[in-house]
Amino acid sequence: MTDTGPTIKAMVFDAYGTLFDVHSVIALCNELFPEQGPALSHMWRAKQLEYTWLLSLMGRYEDFWHITEKALRFACRALKLPYDEAQQAQLLEAYLHLEPYPEVQQALTGLTGYPLAILSNGSPAMLEPLVSNAGLQGTFAHVISVDELKIYKPSPQVYRLAVDKLGLEAQAIGFVSSNSFDIIGATAFGFRTFWVNRAASPLDELGVVPTTTIGKLTDLVEVLNR
After folding, report:
1. Fewest CB atoms within 10 Å of the CB: 20, 34, 117, 158?
2. Superfamily of chain region 22-94
3. What are phi and psi of 81, to 5 degrees?
4. By the 8 A CB rule, do 75 and 82 touch?
5. What's the chain's Rg over C-alpha atoms?
6. Which residues are catalytic?
7. pLDDT digits 0-9 by tens, 159-217
8. How many helical (H) and strand (E) elements, i.e. helices and strands, does the chain have?
9. What is the CA angle 134-26-53, rounded to 5?
């Protein structure tokens, strides 16, 4: 589906899995637990997201750092991987140094005509070092955390944060995510959405379709310049 709506005046990005590769921790996972890296990383991420949804549905909140820690402990137990406090600290620290996807710098440079923002589940204490460690200081006009609201994506309240911070109507904001639950939530809210479907995955069957589907972030520049 292509973009044919009103003019986009700002671009908002999800962080984890969109700008930053959550599975760049696999190398360290393999170092600590040989041959278990992919399994640990994928279960860690899946449980991390599951906890955000469960807490939101229960009307409870814990910040993303604590959720990430608890998800890691669960994944290690489920995979029967013995770990100590030092190993846990190493793995959690890796979340502050996630690698940006290779095309991130080129894509963001090509979008300098737009105000850019991040809208993320991450807590400020996670997002600030993550952006800094990736060399992206000064790139974003806003780095917005759900921590302000104490509820997680895909709550419409979260997407409203970007509207309020940018002072724009939802239809004037382009929202970019590789996470299907996030892109569906943002589309339902009213953003113009760009699903970065790197793995060519099928879209979830919820009857909500993103405005545009792309294969990598650098495709954004071409789409927006049409």
Report:
1. 34
2. Putative phosphatase; domain 2 (1.10.150.240)
3. -105, 110
4. no
5. 17
6. 14
7. 999 999 999 999 999 999 999 999 999 999 999 999 999 999 999 999 999 999 999 99
8. 9, 8
9. 80
